[in-house]
RNA sequence: GCCCCGGUGGUGAAAUUGGUAGACACGCAGGACUUAAAAUCCUGUUUACAGCAAUGUAAGUAACGGUUCAACUCCGUUCCGGGGCACCA
């Protein structure tokens, strides 16, 4: 027998499939363990070598936990709603359902070839009606719930209605509420629902007649076609994620995410503590009738109140109209026109540009009565805080720049901390010119100032969040339809019995009228009865849910994937509980991870599940980048790529002036020295039918060969960059086991690294070497050999030592996701066993169990070859016996003043005194000591000995 | 600009968390087997100097400085690379 990986892998994959080896039950006496991968979007390009990195890591962990005696849930599914399929449909007319189905089949086939232990009977697809029925149902739960501020949790909206009916609230009495029309009541309720509808801005592209997602807009124009994009107000759905800001923040303390990951989420939530306070407008320089006006500002630094030199209000702020004086009216109008003309993009990219306009109005500093000019400026955002700030130029960079630009006098309240040339945002300065705060450290003065503000009744303590409510509508076809029917301006939820509201079959995918989605074109579908019984008429919501809708709860569906009564039975979710380990990329740090955390909290509040954080531990796998090789030539008249060549050519602009053409090469064109010969280039030109003038290229010479040295860059793998490697090819050439171990051997899982097959031979060699522990070599000439080598005799202590050292290392490394060093440990062990000519069945069997998570196919094959019972997948993980790890004597390195000088052999349980004696009788050391006095003797048991002279 | 993370041979990397830096692997060089190739095995491989050699000496983890008997590891400053946020008051 020889190591025929193709045959072996195919055989066992079939065998595992036939025997349902990976089927997981919800009932088991074993403890549960839930290992989850971020499910993929099934793109048409199929799997590339970067995808499986995380999947292999989680597969190893699942198999390891299974061997350790856990009932392991390790499912896989597909996030199959999404834009690319729709884009493809627009271009080719192929229905997304068709292409999605096809892509999923490709993905599954590719995944199976790598030998993952998924329980495919639990597969979920977000685009299946049987799945999105429950996405719609949870949406209705969100719609029918509100966030109770007293209890800090979601509650049924019915509770709120009941309260309004009987008690009213601070804005209206119960009597008033009951007198409101249905529409009026709904309008009020909409302001509290967790899924709510409101007018919001979208990216509207007139030329394409459609709404674009943020990443479809590049530099203020549409990614496709380059048409201008403007903001347009439209009715949109939102999730009130801001209500959960605080709980999302606190929940981070209870989960094991990496610190940077937590930090990203904290930044996104952007909690800040401060105070909201009012500045009365009008100090004698005002027109009559404006005295009662007040500007509400938000500040985190109330301690700087005496350094306020002006107020700034966002241009969009509704108060602006009432503020502006007659003299400033024209100027302000001009400024507002200018602001409106600026795209978001311009506003963001030209941050350093200072613009603003004086309103003519003055506010009064409530503490010292000082008149303060009120300006409007685009650097103040309408959407954050109160949309108005108090400007303290000596302490804030932006305020400082603004004051300088418009020559507003600056008050210094921090003495020498302020140098007049730039603002100093310190909190450590002692306050001056600050009345009752004088002499206080700023950080202490914050609380004092807030107390005073509250005491005077001009403001209050306030916590603000940077996070906004999440937009939940997409004007697209390929997504979950909203189970909502509009009757005039009132949204009416479908009954649960009407779910799923199936996505109607589309012939065309173009945008609907007025920026609506494609569904708006299906007039028959849009006209809807309000219920199955056919009562009342309404108009269906025509936008669909965003990509993150289905992915916000899919981890729950895996627990109970076929349930038709509920999205996940409480018994199932109580059993599987949190995802113990969640493996995925960092790119979802603030999107998917925040949304799914919020959904989980809502479902917890409503009593559907018993835990409020979905993921106990998160492991972020790095990205495997592709290597792009390229050369660039300056664009000239001789160089004109034809249409076909554009596929491997991209334009690179430098300094906006010179254009370069960048020719990319897949590594198939490149030799080991990153060179491309004239011959190879000609082949590429032929293959891609390039029309370029290669005469303009300057060739290098070596011998009689002409070549170019290509530049090399690592970038994200993408079809358009010609740097994609397909795992199928690697698996075909070396086998799945080699591929799995090699991807792990490449480096730490968390690290991003370029794909490189240079070292794969080494891993493949290791597996062949392992094979030769079991069978004798085959002589290719005579075909003799391949005989079993193993013997069934009792291993020696030395052999046990090798085994138990391996158990310890592999167990440790696997627990810590340190797979690269685990693979190295396997290599060492196999070398040691080969050197020791250890072919004992007991040892070999144990090694195979350890190896199973990493290389399941070869492990299973050899396991059976040895004549072991059952599948190695369910073998009992070998127990570590410390006694084999203890050594009687050990070589202790001896150093003098930290420099290594010699080594001595000592019993491992030697005392310090014994060690000292041994050192002092060592000739080499004595020579180094040269009779000098020994000041200190350091004996680190099990490590080393240091002598200080 | 702010916040993270990182920088170790020709290459991917390891280092029991302060204790013999470079495990393991690739590549390279030399050798064995072979008519030859493939496969396999063995030896060497941080740098400099000395030696026929075994070996020895010195330097060495981006740079400089500090703490320590001992620093890749801790502290400070600087440089470089990667990621995130970006007028959030």
Layout of helices and strands, plus pairs?
Blueprint lengths: L4 H14 L13 E6 L14 H16 L3 E3 L9 H10 L3 H18 L15 H15 L1 E4 L4 E4 H11 L6 H6 L2 H9 L4 E11 L4 E3 L4 E2 L2 E2 L7 E10 L5 H7 L7 H11 L1 E11 L12 E6 L10 E4 L6 H4 L5 H13 L2 H6 L7 E8 L6 E6 L11 E4 L5 H9 L36 H15 L2 E7 L4 E2 L12 E4 L2 E4 L29 H4 E3 L7 E4 L6 H5 L2 H4 L12 H7 L4 E4 L7 H14 L12 E3 L3 E11 L14 E6 L3 E8 L9 E3 H10 L12 E3 L2 E5 L1 E6 L10 H8 L1 H10 L7 E2 L5 H15 L3 E2 L4 E2 L11 H19 L3 H17 L5 H11 L4 H10 L23 E8 L2 E9 L4 H9 L2 H7 L6 E5 L3 E5 L1
Parallel strand pairs: 1-2, 1-22, 12-14, 22-23, 24-31, 34-37
Antiparallel strand pairs: 3-4, 5-6, 5-9, 7-8, 9-17, 10-11, 10-13, 10-16, 12-15, 13-14, 18-19, 18-21, 20-21, 24-26, 24-30, 25-26, 27-29, 28-29, 32-33, 34-35, 36-37
The structure holds one RNA strand of 89 nucleotides.
What can you see in these coordinates?
The strands form ten sheets. Strands 10, 11, 12, 13, 14, 15 and 16 form a seven-stranded mixed sheet that branches. Strands 24, 25, 26, 30 and 31 form a five-stranded mixed sheet that branches. It contains 30 helices and 37 strands. The longest helix has 19 residues, at 797-815. Helix content is 33%, strand content 20%. The structure holds one RNA strand of 89 nucleotides.
């Amino acid at each position: 027998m020889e190591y025929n990986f193709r045959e072996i892998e195919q055989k066992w994959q079939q065998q595992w499939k036939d025997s349902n080896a990976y089927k997981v039950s919800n009932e088991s006496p074993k403890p549960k363990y839930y290992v989850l991968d971020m499910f993929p979007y099934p793109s048409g390009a199929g799997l590339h070598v970067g995808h499986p990195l995380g999947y292999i890591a989680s597969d190893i962990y699942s198999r390891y936990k299974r061997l350790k005696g856990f009932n392991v849930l390790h499912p896989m599914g597909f996030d199959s709603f999404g834009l690319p399929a729709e884009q493809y449909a627009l271009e080719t007319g192929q229905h997304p359902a068709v292409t999605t189905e096809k892509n999923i089949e490709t993905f599954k086939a590719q995944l199976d070839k790598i030998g993952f232990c998924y329980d495919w009977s639990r597969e979920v697809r977000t685009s299946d009606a049987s799945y999105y029925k429950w996405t719609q149902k949870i949406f209705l739960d969100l719609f029918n719930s509100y966030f109770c501020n007293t209890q800090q949790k979601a509650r049924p909206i019915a509770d709120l209605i009941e309260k309004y009916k009987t008690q009213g609230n601070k804005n209206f009495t119960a009597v008033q509420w009951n007198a409101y029309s249905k529409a009026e009541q709904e309008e009020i309720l909409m302001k509290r629902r967790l899924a709510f509808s409101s007018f919001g801005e979208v990216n509207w592209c007139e030329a394409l007649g459609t709404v674009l997602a943020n990443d479809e807009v590049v530099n203020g124009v549409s990614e496709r076609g380059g048409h201008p994009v403007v903001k347009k107000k439209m009715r949109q759905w939102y999730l009130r994620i801001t209500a959960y800001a605080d709980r999302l923040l606190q929940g981070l303390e209870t989960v094991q995410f990496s610190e940077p990951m937590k930090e990203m989420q904290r930044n996104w939530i952007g909690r800040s503590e401060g105070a909201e306070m009012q500045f009365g407008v009008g100090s004698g320089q005002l027109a009559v009738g404006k005295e009662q006006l007040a500007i509400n500002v938000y500040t985190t630094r109330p301690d700087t109140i005496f350094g306020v030199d002006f107020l700034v209000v966002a241009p969009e702020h509704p108060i602006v109209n009432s503020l502006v004086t007659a003299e400033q009216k024209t100027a302000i109008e001009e400024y507002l026109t200018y602001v409106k003309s600026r795209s978001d993009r311009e506003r963001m990219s030209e941050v350093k540009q200072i613009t603003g306009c004086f309103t003519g109005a003055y506010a009064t500093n409530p503490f010292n009565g000082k008149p303060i000019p009120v300006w409007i400026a685009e650097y103040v955002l309408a959407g954050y805080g109160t949309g108005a700030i108090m400007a303290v130029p000596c302490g804030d960079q932006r305020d400082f720049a603004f004051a300088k630009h418009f020559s507003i006098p600056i008050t210094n309240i921090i003495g020498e901390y302020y140098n007049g040339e730039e603002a100093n945002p310190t909190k450590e300065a002692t306050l001056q010119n600050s009345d009752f705060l004088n002499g206080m450290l700023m950080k202490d003065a914050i609380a004092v100032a807030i107390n005073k503000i509250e005491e005077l009744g001009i403001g209050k303590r306030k916590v603000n969040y940077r996070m906004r409510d999440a937009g939940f509508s997409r004007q697209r076809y390929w997504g979950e339809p909203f189970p909502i029917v509009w009757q005039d301006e009132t949204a009416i939820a479908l009954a649960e019995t009407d779910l799923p509201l199936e996505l109607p079959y589309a012939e065309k995918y173009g945008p609907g009228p007025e920026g609506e989605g494609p569904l708006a074109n299906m007039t028959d579908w849009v006209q809807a009865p309000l219920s199955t019984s056919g009562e009342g008429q309404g108009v269906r919501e025509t936008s669909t849910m965003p990509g993150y809708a289905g992915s916000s709860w899919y981890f729950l569906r895996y627990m109970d994937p076929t349930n038709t009564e509920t999205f996940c039975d409480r018994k199932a979710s109580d059993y599987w509980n949190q995802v113990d380990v969640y493996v995925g990329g960092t790119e979802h740090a603030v999107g998917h991870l925040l949304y799914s955390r919020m959904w989980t909290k809502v479902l917890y509040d409503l009593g559907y599940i018993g835990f409020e954080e979905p993921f106990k531990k998160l492991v972020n796998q790095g990205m495997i980048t592709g290597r792009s090789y390229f050369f660039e030539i300056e664009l000239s008249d001789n160089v004109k790529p034809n249409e076909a060549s554009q596929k491997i050519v991209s334009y690179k602009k430098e300094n906006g002036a010179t254009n370069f053409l960048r020719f990319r090469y897949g590594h198939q064109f490149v030799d080991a020295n990153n060179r491309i010969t004239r011959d190879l280039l000609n082949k590429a030109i032929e293959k891609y039918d390039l029309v370029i003038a290669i005469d303009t290229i300057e060739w290098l010479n070596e011998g009689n060969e002409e070549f170019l040295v290509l530049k090399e860059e690592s970038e994200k793998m993408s079809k358009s960059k010609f740097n994609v490697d397909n795992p199928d090819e690697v698996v075909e050439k070396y086998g799945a086991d080699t591929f799995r171990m090699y991807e792990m051997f490449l480096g730490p899982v968390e690290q991003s690294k370029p794909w490189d097959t240079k070292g794969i031979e080494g891993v493949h060699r290791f597996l062949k070497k392992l094979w030769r522990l079991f069978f004798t070599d085959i002589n290719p000439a005579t075909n003799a050999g391949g005989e079993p080598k193993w013997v069934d005799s009792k291993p020696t202590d030395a052999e046990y030592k090798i085994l138990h050292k391996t158990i310890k290392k592999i167990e440790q490394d696997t627990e810590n996701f340190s797979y690269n060093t685990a693979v190295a440990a396997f290599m060492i062990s196999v070398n040691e066993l080969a050197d020791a000519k250890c072919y004992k069945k007991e040892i070999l069997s144990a090694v195979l169990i350890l190896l199973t998570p990493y290389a399941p196919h070869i492990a299973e094959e050899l396991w059976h070859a040895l004549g072991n019972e059952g599948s190695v997948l369910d073998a009992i993980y070998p127990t570590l016996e410390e006694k084999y790890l203890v050594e009687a004597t050990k070589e202790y390195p001896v150093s003098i003043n930290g420099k290594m000088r010699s080594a001595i052999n000592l019993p491992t349980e030697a005392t310090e005194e014994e060690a000292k004696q041994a050192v002092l009788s060592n000739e080499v050391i004595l020579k180094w000591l040269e009779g000098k006095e020994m000041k200190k003797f350091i004996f680190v048991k099990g490590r080393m000995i240091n002598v200080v002279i």
